[in-house]
Amino acid sequence: MASYNVRWGIMATGGIATTFVRDLLTDPKVRGASDVSHTIVAVASSSSASRAEEFIVDKAIPRPCAAYGSYEELVADSSVDVIYVATPHSHHFQNSMLALEAGKHVLCEKAFTVNAAQAKILCETAKKKNLFLMEAVWTRYFPLSVQVRDLIKQGAIGEVLRVIADNSTGDDVEKIWGTAHRMVNKDLAGGALLDLGIYSLTWVFQTLYHTLPVTQRKPPSAISAHITPYHLTGADEATTILLSFPTTTPSNSTHPGESQAVAMTHLRVATDPGEDNSAGPAVRIQGTKGEIQVDGPVWRPERYRVISKKTGDSEASGIKEVHCSFPGNGHGMYWEADEVARCLRDGKLESESMPWEESIVIMEVMDEARRQGGLTYPESIESTSYPLKL
Ligand SMILES: NC(=O)c1ccc[n+]([C@@H]2O[C@H](COP(=O)([O-])OP(=O)(O)OC[C@H]3O[C@@H](n4cnc5c(N)ncnc54)[C@H](OP(=O)(O)O)[C@@H]3O)[C@@H](O)[C@H]2O)c1
Question: Domain Gfo/Idh/MocA-like oxidoreductase N-terminal spans what residues (predicted)?
């Protein structure tokens, strides 16, 4: 049977667009996907058509592939099925709206938007226009993430009561990011929370929330956040969020209980300073019968352990370690691209693994953390008005 082919339009030519395009160009069969395939039919750069052309040549994108010097031209191209939005998060709302209004499906990089109000409008627009829309939280589509979620659902570590997740980089912030880079520039919605903290929250949500049947998922009942501003720009250089969920997983049957989580991110200290996991796991998912530990980085983990609780004096605790590979030497973004293709093939507007409702709840958590920490962004990038020139 012929595979279902998706025709991609790439919006922006920066770092993550490069990584995504490389993965799109790998042969799906190498990762065991024979049902879908990908073609890049157009690339747009906001700076010039020659920049887009240079990107096409550099990345060896097969011809024909159109090169555009504006995003407006890209979304008007009738040969494009879906737009991959790879601009800074400050621009995600305006850029995704542009694509949706032009009748294009959208895969938009994380963080989805600057705030939940913008995310809601994107989802409403996609629904109204009968278009597919997904936040590109690629980690959710890794076989490793799927396995961990399945283990939780099967009760492998009992009732999960606490999750601790950290995504911290340990940078020389002034030297590496300065003041203008999108990581710390408030005009580009910079800061650790929206860029890195989203992954800590991803692990909290995909283990404590997403593992429940849809009807039992409940947003956090309490959120407490501490934010440390970066002295040169005011963007957050560190954010820690404590969350309580009114549910436990995989079931709430043994006793009516809550689960707790700690989601952390920091630019100046690292999750794993030795880059050898000597600091311990980046994620601990703790249940009544044991725990699952995921080694970092949390956005692209390669290994997890299931540790069973020691039950008697003589019995040793059981530890099972699992390594997950990236076929074809890929980065791992192809799994989310395959998901987009399958959703389009099946006429779905959203992905079950990253549903709109969950993206919005996570944005609401980040809104609340920013409210408590006093972190605001310029009015224009917090705005829900469209179109707006940024
Ligand atoms: N999934 C992941 O693992 C991952 C990793 C890194 C980043 N990201 C996300 O991807 C997005 C882009 O990150 P990146 O690292 O690729 O950033 P980047 O290297 O700075 O690239 C961003 C691109 O956006 C375009 N752009 C449009 N308006 C812009 C403006 N006002 N200022 C700067 N750039 C502008 C530019 O391309 P043109 O001029 O060619 O249009 C630029 O090259 C962010 O939302 C980030 O959170 C995701």
Answer: 7-134
Query: Distance from the CA of 14 to the center of ligand 1, in angstroms?
Result: 5
Place of tokens 């042969």: 27
Ligand 1 site-directed mutation target among 16, 137, 188, most atoms within 8 Å of CB: 16
Domain 143-323 falls under CATH 3.40.1190.20: no
In this structure, the residue with its CA closest to atom 42 of ligand 1 is 14
Q: For 175-278, list the strands marked E by DSSP.
A: 222-229, 236-245, 259-266
Q: How far is 21 from 86, CA to CA, in rounded Å?
A: 11
Question: How many whole angstroms separate alpha carbon 111 and alpha carbon 193?
Answer: 9
139 CA from centroid of ligand 1 (Å) = 18
Q: Is the CB of 88 under 6 A from ligand 1?
A: yes
CA 92 to ligand 1 centroid distance, Å: 10
Whether 91 lines ligand 1, by a CB cut-off of 6 Å, is: yes
CATH of domain 4-138+333-353: 3.40.50.720
Q: How far is ligand 1, taken at its centre, from the CA of residue 375, in Å? A: 21
Q: Decide whether any atom of ligand 1 lies within 6 Å of the 140 Cβ.
A: no
Of 176, 45, 205, which is closest to residue 184 (Cα–Cα)?
A: 176
**Domains in the chain: boundaries:** 4-138+333-353, 143-323
**Quick one: tokens of 158?**
């009992």
Output the tens digit of pLDDT for each of the chain's 390 residues: 789 999 999 999 999 999 999 999 999 999 999 999 999 999 999 999 999 999 999 999 999 999 999 999 999 999 999 999 999 999 999 999 999 999 999 999 999 999 999 999 999 999 999 999 999 999 999 999 999 999 999 999 999 999 999 999 999 999 999 999 999 999 999 999 999 999 999 999 999 999 999 999 999 999 999 999 999 999 999 999 999 999 898 875 556 689 999 999 999 999 999 999 999 999 999 999 999 999 989 999 999 999 999 887 656 668 999 999 999 999 999 999 999 999 999 999 999 999 999 999 999 999 999 999 999 999 999 999 999 999
